[in-house]
């Protein structure tokens, strides 16, 4: 847990009592909120999650019938709760569904290739040295340019593209961001910033005129690469055939993004004048970009798919209008995602924790707020997103096509995996310390981008008594900050936090089932979100957003 200031620490001591959650002296729930609070019941969460994670829904793969059934169930529950439909259909009528058009595709690893020309020499690679795909079949060719970490961050005084022309070129960058192991780094110390994800780097390359982005792991890294970390998960990451790719047809990202191995990265940088290790060291030492054109170096990419189809999923959306006419135009978002990894026939990836738990949590909060006679001053948008497992597609779609203005969206609470005790797993072993007892622990992810948000949640927790943990905001190996539906809204400067109970050996395995959920803790988390959302919906000063959080 992040070190508290003396004022915050003393305030926490005043209500925490002992370290034992069962012995905490909890603050009373305000009388005006108690009816809704009492509506959040373990028995209902258990019943709903048993259905959502059942065999009948076949793992809720987006564009498959099981996920369609989940979408319909959520909409029916929103209607029964008394919310208003928050979207409109093609005829302009109110609707529970924001349609999310998707392209599903299966890359052809036998044909997809990266070819390097340096002068008269030629080398070519396929999987596993070159991995990734694209929604369209394309051939791209152009000169290769190295752009450091691929970051343009004016607020941090750093730009890998300064004095670099990449128009009509292919760009190679390192994963992550500079100085990531330095607690004093201006890039949020040892935590990730929103500049560190490949999508943001690709959008930046595209904005500078690049044709494609190639990404290699940092040569001096002290953690697994993104690909190595993903493969450590096992489960659906190792499925045969692999899970299909999905993409938004109108995505603002229009160029391909591919990952290359260390060996390929070294070959691509043959004309850099420095080794990859030396390039990273030079950047990290004093945040001096080392970007450069690579003489005589050109790249040709061939990408094709063995199958490609179009389909439609939906973000399920319901609205509770605010009770104060002056504040009702402002919005609080409470969200989760309804999809998971489906079935391969004999096996079902049930997705009870990921993210059946979040789905039923949002539904429970809709019922709670509608049961409560008094309503928050600001409006609450309840949103359960499509296709998160395929790349946060539903939430990116809503962030690009918001149903209510993002400029007046004051806070977002996102549920993703709120039902388990965190346990060691192949994904996390050796990368992050897991507390000995996680039966009462909740991870808050994204607090560095809004300390005000964090404070409000911790004040609300005085009535709940969960052990709140922010360590995922201060690590960089697991890429947690990017991996759920609050992130597209963080990119739009919305104060947003992800409530999460951590990873476990059943994550993305068929054994993520409803019988393994800690329903006592899950109930407390949903109640905490209820009280926190009340604060966001009524506070005179909503949380402020911090564009460029600094290190400790």
Show the helix and strand layout.
Elements: H1 6-16, H2 34-39, H3 42-52, H4 65-81, E1 84-85, E2 87-88, E3 94-95, E4 97-107, E5 113-118, E6 121-125, E7 130-131, E8 138-146, E9 152-153, E10 158-159, E11 170-174, H5 198-207, E12 212-216, H6 226-233, E13 245-247, E14 257-260, H7 262-268, H8 276-286, E15 292-303, E16 305-320, E17 331-337, H9 352-371, E18 379-385, H10 393-400, E19 409-415, E20 441-445, H11 451-460, E21 467-469, H12 487-490, E22 496-500, H13 519-538
Parallel strand pairs: 8-11, 11-12, 12-14, 17-18, 17-19, 19-22, 20-21
Antiparallel strand pairs: 1-16, 2-3, 4-13, 4-16, 5-6, 5-15, 7-14, 8-15, 9-10, 16-18, 20-22
If you had to describe this structure to a student in words, what would you say it looks like?
Helix content is 26%, strand content 22%. The protein is α/β, with parallel strands linked by helices. The chain has two domains: 44-102 and 312-538, Aminopeptidase (3-Layer(aba) Sandwich); 109-303, Glucose Oxidase, domain 1 (3-Layer(bba) Sandwich). The strands form four sheets. Strands 1, 4, 13, 16, 17, 18, 19, 20, 21 and 22 form a ten-stranded mixed β-sheet that branches. An eight-stranded mixed β-sheet has the order 6-5-15-8-11-12-14-7. Strand 11, helix 5 and strand 12 form a beta-alpha-beta unit. Helix 3 packs across helix 9, helix 4 packs parallel to helix 9 and helix 11 (451-460) packs across helix 13 (519-538). The two termini are 13 Å apart.
């Amino acid at each position: 847990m992040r070190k508290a200031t003396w004022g915050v620490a003393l305030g926490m001591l005043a209500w925490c009592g002992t370290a034992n959650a069962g012995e905490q002296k909890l603050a009373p729930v305000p009388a005006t909120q108690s009816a809704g609070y009492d509506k959040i019941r373990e028995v209902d969460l258990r019943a709903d999650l048993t259905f959502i994670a059942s065999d009948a829904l076949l793992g809720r793969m987006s564009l498959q019938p099981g996920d369609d059934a989940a979408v319909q169930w959520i909409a029916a529950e929103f209607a029964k709760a008394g919310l208003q439909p928050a979207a409109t259909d093609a005829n302009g009528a109110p609707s529970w569904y924001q349609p999310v058009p998707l392209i599903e595709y299966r890359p052809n690893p036998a044909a997809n290739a990266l070819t390097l020309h340096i002068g008269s020499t030629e080398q070519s690679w396929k999987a596993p040295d070159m991995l990734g795909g694209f929604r369209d079949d394309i051939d791209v060719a152009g000169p290769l340019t190295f752009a450091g970490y691929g970051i343009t961050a004016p607020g941090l005084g750093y730009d890998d593209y300064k004095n670099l022309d990449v128009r009509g070129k292919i760009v190679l960058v390192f994963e992550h961001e500079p100085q990531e192991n330095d607690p004093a780094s201006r890039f949020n110390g040892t935590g990730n910033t929103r500049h560190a994800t490949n999508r943001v780097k690709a959008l930046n390359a595209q904005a500078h005129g690049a044709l494609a982005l190639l990404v290699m792991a940092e040569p001096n890294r002290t953690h697994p690469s993104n690909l190595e970390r993903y493969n450590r998960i096992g489960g659906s990451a190792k499925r045969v055939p692999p899970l299909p790719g999905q993409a938004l047809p109108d995505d603002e990202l229009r160029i391909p993004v591919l990952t290359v191995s260390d060996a390929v990265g070294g070959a691509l940088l043959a004309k850099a004048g420095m080794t990859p290790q030396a390039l990273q060291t030079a950047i990290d030492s004093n945040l001096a970009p080392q970007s450069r054109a690579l003489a005589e170096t050109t790249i040709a990419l061939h990408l094709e798919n063995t199958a490609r189809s179009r389909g439609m999923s939906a973000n399920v959306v319901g609205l509770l209008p605010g009770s104060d006419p002056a504040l009702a135009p402002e919005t609080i978002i409470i969200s989760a995602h309804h999809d998971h990894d489906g079935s391969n026939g004999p096996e079902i990836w049930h997705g009870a924790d990921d993210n059946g738990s979040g789905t039923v949590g949002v539904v429970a909060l809709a019922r709670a707020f509608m049961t409560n006679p008094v309503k928050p001053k600001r409006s609450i948008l309840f949103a359960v997103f499509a296709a998160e497992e395929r790349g946060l597609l539903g939430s990116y779609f809503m962030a690009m096509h918001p149903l209510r203005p993002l400029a007046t969206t004051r806070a977002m609470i996102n549920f993703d995996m709120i039902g388990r005790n965190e346990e060691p797993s192949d994904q996390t072993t050796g990368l992050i310390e897991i507390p000995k007892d996680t039966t009462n622990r909740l991870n808050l992810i994204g607090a560095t981008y809004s300390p005000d948000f964090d404070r409000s949640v911790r004040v609300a927790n005085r009535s709940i008594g969960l052990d709140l943990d922010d360590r995922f905001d201060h690590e960089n190996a697991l890429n947690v900050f990017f991996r759920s539906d609050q992130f597209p809204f963080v990119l739009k400067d919305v104060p947003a936090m992800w409530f999460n109970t951590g990873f476990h050996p059943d994550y993305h395995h068929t054994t993520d089932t409803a019988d393994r959920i800690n329903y006592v803790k899950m109930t407390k988390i949903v109640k905490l979100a209820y009280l926190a959302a009340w604060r966001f919906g009524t506070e005179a000063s909503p949380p402020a957003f911090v564009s460029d959080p600094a290190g400790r």
